């Protein structure tokens, strides 16, 4: 594995378990997410040390003037990717990696960040149509999914010119048959790849409300010495479900988790995220002040320093595992060495991989087959993890089944909470509608109050497969083919919008019939 240079020229090793010394940690300070809607406000805010920009929203050769001015002032800019899907079954796309690398170099970034999530499924690995989620979805915390993620991370690390940090995501749903807690999953990931972590404390709060997971336990189990920086954001609770909106003020419980984290280690950077319903500059400044106050209050307490954070984190993780036996690894007692099936699809079953991976020490290192046999685990079970393509295939089938249920209306995979799947499905459609309204603001203007209703009706059985711009064109085409909207003037404006972007006319009756027949065959 090659080494990546930091902005100071210091090598950051990507050897598993290496590269986490405090001397190699980039000090970022207090930052805010840069968005075009608040570009002027971000430039005017006092005390901003750095900003984070959504990587997919900028071009390496045409950086926004606001970012250029910030860089000229010495403000660090970090690109934050959302589309790699490193937790997906497919290996990372070389083109996407090359684009992210180019943006990191154009911005002079000390690191790049992405998410522990999957964003697409289907395709060649499952011999099914490719599907796009349009949003971040959680990976199952299984050994299979971890194996796939680690290989994908190594591929990404080799393609990027700077270190990579990965973010824990918020989730509305839980996978059945999970084998590790979030903290253990992240600890294993860092141990194997040396990747850094971007810890989102708002996402820890979301998972506490939605999945009953304890934020303090997650912080105790994860390697805090690997933290590159921290996200803080707001959300809201609706019908017992917490929605990580990034469009509301940061609540006190999220700030409490930030305090908990800061009591364990001084985070190199903390960033406020805001993606919608942008408040006045004064309110953004007030939120940043609250974050600074929490960090200042916690600084006076006794907390783990970067130098000894690795030892303290390892001790906490070892204690958590040793004290609970198999349950410390996120599995039920009495199942060590037993392959429990992971339930997927409409009643389908595939192996979830070896439970606690045979021959694994508390620190996550492999001990080989001899160690596995000493635990009473058959050698063939210990060898099961030696076939990464099988693990990749199992993860592919599981993720395709889930995503198909969420975006294409297929039956819910066995073991999932169907009510939560409905909530997640609606959230994905809402996300699609919001993004399209941003990239094509003419559509909600033309359709008025009927925009979201029309889009939800369209998206219910039409999954996204080619990005948001193609999704917008397909949505408008669907409306025009159906003779909508009813208002002639609105329909003419919509037709003109569609023609301007396709340089053609809406499909005729014969073409529509052929497309309908193809769609029917695909669904069968």
Would you kindly provide a brief summary of this structure?
It is built from 19 helices and 16 strands. The protein has helices at 39-44, 65-72, 94-107, 143-159, 182-193, 201-211, 215-221, 252-264, 281-299, 306-324, 368-374, 379-382, 388-407, 418-439, 442-447, 451-459, 468-481, 488-502, 509-523, and strands at 4-5, 11-12, 29-34, 50-54, 76-80, 112-115, 118-123, 128-137, 164-167, 196-200, 227-232, 236-238, 241-243, 269-272, 341-344, 348-351.
Q: What does the secondary structure layout of this molecule look like, with pairings?
A:
Elements: E1 4-5, E2 11-12, E3 29-34, H1 39-44, E4 50-54, H2 65-72, E5 76-80, H3 94-107, E6 112-115, E7 118-123, E8 128-137, H4 143-159, E9 164-167, H5 182-193, E10 196-200, H6 201-211, H7 215-221, E11 227-232, E12 236-238, E13 241-243, H8 252-264, E14 269-272, H9 281-299, H10 306-324, E15 341-344, E16 348-351, H11 368-374, H12 379-382, H13 388-407, H14 418-439, H15 442-447, H16 451-459, H17 468-481, H18 488-502, H19 509-523
Parallel strand pairs: 3-4, 3-14, 4-5, 6-9, 9-10, 10-11, 11-14
Antiparallel strand pairs: 1-2, 7-8, 12-13, 15-16
Structure explained in plain terms:
With 524 residues, this protein is an alpha/beta fold. It is built from 19 helices and 16 strands. It has helices at residues 39-44, 65-72, 94-107, 143-159, 182-193, 201-211, 215-221, 252-264, 281-299, 306-324, 368-374, 379-382, 388-407, 418-439, 442-447, 451-459, 468-481, 488-502, 509-523, and strands at 4-5, 11-12, 29-34, 50-54, 76-80, 112-115, 118-123, 128-137, 164-167, 196-200, 227-232, 236-238, 241-243, 269-272, 341-344, 348-351. The strands form five sheets. Strands 5-4-3-14-11-10-9-6 form an eight-stranded parallel β-sheet. A hairpin with a 2-residue loop joins strand 12 (236-238) and strand 13 (241-243). Helix 4 packs across helix 5, helix 5 runs parallel beside helix 7 and helix 17 crosses helix 18 (488-502).
